[in-house]
């Protein structure tokens, strides 16, 4: 009898150990680590802000395992404690790995200032870029109306230096990267009509008009090394930059021009992609899309020497092989020479768009945007626009997707994977129901944590 009991106990322990081992093995990520890639399960949904309008525009993972979020705020109460008026200011929040706020700061002047992009710099600090109407308090050197405003911060969020770039019109700073020589490249929109003649000449001696891609190369202290303009007679808006392995740059955005620097407009707005040299000369330029509106919003390296571009399309011809509905999230993969390697539409029968793409540690990608669909590739819709996060593999195949929101408008603008492989999605929300537990007033900054 005792032998049978001992045998039974032995078998029970053996099965338990093997089961635990299998659970442990299954918890490993694709790279063999003990932290699996996020599986699309919502860990937390939080809103931040005050009684006015607050929004997150971008998120960056930080070297300490946490993350930093940049956006803007109009509020001067609630979660905003260092603001004295209801003009818009840049707003940056630093979180640790446990999703806890370490510090929160606003930057700007007495007029409207809106943050657009943030990077962590090699010294552990940050560079933040956006647009500013101010010429006081944190902002100096404004040239008239809206300028690019770039600030270099230390690791604690204190301003080390700041610069304004612009002319008499409305010039909007959109993207910043730190370059391989420790300088910066910033891009945005030049208001050609009020630029004192800047942007009015090109390689063909034709005049530009409307808005141009405007790229400014800076050294490590923010001093201009060169300034260049790219575009045509209509509207050209750059949204994202990447530095290539040969120390050149690819800029992506949208254009409805068909002249000057644009040689092959396909129809209406296209993805307009340009590669420029280290000194700003155009190496090549390509348009991608169909005969409807197609706009590129973000580019990232694909890990194999090529690049993935995320945007949205309303087309169903030329480069776009499969339109699923009114507007689709559209991905293209291009070579370093601008060759289209593949393209893929993701979405449902309503409006679905992308705003950001970033790589993951398992060789895939994360895409953030919004969706109004609840069919085909989109599992549900809570009402109007939902913030939408999609995980794809290296071939653009969906691994998981998640829509988050309430019955009002909810939007995601930025997405990143942290060192621990959790995913942070940022944007804004006007909802106060369904997934959104609390709305603090008008639009709130939205942060979604996915495990």
Describe the SSE topology:
Blueprint: H1 2-26, E1 42-48, E2 54-61, E3 67-73, E4 89-95, E5 101-107, E6 113-120, E7 126-132, E8 147-153, E9 159-165, E10 172-178, E11 184-191, E12 211-218, E13 224-230, E14 236-243, E15 249-255, E16 270-276, E17 282-288, E18 294-301, E19 307-313, E20 328-334, E21 340-346, E22 352-359, E23 365-371, E24 386-392, E25 398-404, E26 410-417, E27 423-429, E28 444-450
Antiparallel strand pairs: 1-28, 2-3, 3-4, 4-5, 6-7, 7-8, 8-9, 10-11, 11-12, 12-13, 14-15, 15-16, 16-17, 18-19, 19-20, 20-21, 22-23, 23-24, 24-25, 26-27, 27-28
Number of continuous helical runs: 1
Distance between the termini: 48 Å
Strand content: over 45%
Question: SSE order in H/E notation?
Answer: HEEEEEEEEEEEEEEEEEEEEEEEEEEEE
Shape: globular
Main sheet properties? 4 strands, antiparallel
Radius of gyration: 23 Å
The SS-based structural class is mainly beta
Q: Low-confidence stretches at least 5 residues in length (pLDDT < 50)? A: 1-33
Q: Classify the helix fraction into a percent range.
A: under 10%
Overall mean pLDDT score? 91
Question: Which sequence of strands runs across the widest sheet?
Answer: 1-28-27-26
Total beta-strand segments: 28
């Amino acid at each position: 009898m005792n032998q049978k009991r001992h045998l039974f106990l032995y078998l029970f322990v053996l099965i338990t150990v093997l089961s635990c081992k299998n659970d442990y093995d299954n918890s490993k990520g694709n790279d063999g680590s003990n932290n699996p890639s996020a599986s699309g399960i919502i860990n937390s949904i939080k809103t931040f802000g005050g009684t006015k309008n607050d929004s997150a525009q971008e998120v960056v993972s930080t070297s300490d395992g946490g993350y930093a979020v940049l956006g803007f705020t109009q509020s001067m109460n609630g979660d905003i404690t260092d603001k004295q008026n209801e003009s818009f200011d840049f707003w940056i929040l630093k979180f640790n790995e446990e999703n806890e706020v370490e510090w929160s700061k606003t930057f700007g002047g007495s007029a409207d200032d809106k943050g657009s992009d943030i990077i962590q710099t090699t010294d552990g600090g940050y560079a933040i870029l956006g647009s500013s109407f101010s010429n006081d308090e944190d902002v100096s050197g404004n040239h008239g109306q809206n300028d690019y405003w770039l600030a270099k911060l230390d690791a604690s969020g204190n301003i080390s230096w700041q610069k304004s770039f612009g002319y008499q019109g409305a010039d909007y700073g959109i993207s910043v990267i730190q370059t391989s020589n420790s300088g910066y490249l910033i891009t945005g929109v030049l208001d050609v009509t009020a630029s004192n003649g800047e942007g009015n000449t090109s390689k063909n001696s034709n005049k530009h008009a409307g808005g141009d891609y405007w790229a400014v190369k800076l050294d490590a202290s923010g001093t201009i090394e060169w300034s260049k303009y790219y575009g045509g007679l209509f509207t050209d808006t750059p949204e994202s930059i990447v530095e290539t392995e040969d120390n050149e740059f690819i800029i992506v955005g949208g254009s409805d021009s068909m002249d000057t620097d644009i040689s092959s407009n396909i129809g209406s707005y296209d993805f307009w992609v340009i590669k420029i040299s280290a000194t700003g000369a155009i190496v090549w330029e390509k348009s991608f899309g169909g005969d409807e509106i197609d706009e590129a919003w973000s580019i990232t390296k694909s890990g194999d020497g090529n690049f993935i571009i995320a945007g949205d399309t309303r087309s169903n011809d030329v480069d776009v092989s499969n339109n699923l509905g009114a507007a689709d999230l559209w991905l293209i993969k291009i070579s370093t020479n601008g060759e289209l390697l593949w393209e893929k539409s993701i979405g449902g029968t309503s409006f679905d768009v992308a705003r950001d793409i970033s790589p993951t540690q398992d060789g895939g990608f994360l895409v953030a945007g919004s969706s109004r669909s609840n069919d085909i590739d989109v599992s549900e819709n809570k009402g109007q626009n939902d913030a939408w996060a999609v995980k794809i593999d290296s071939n653009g195949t969906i691994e998981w997707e998640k829509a988050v929101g309430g019955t009002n408008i909810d939007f995601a603008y930025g997405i990143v994977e942290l060192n621990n492989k959790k995913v942070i999605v940022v944007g804004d929300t006007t909802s106060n129901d369904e997934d959104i537990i609390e709305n603090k007033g008008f639009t709130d900054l939205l942060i979604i944590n996915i495990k």
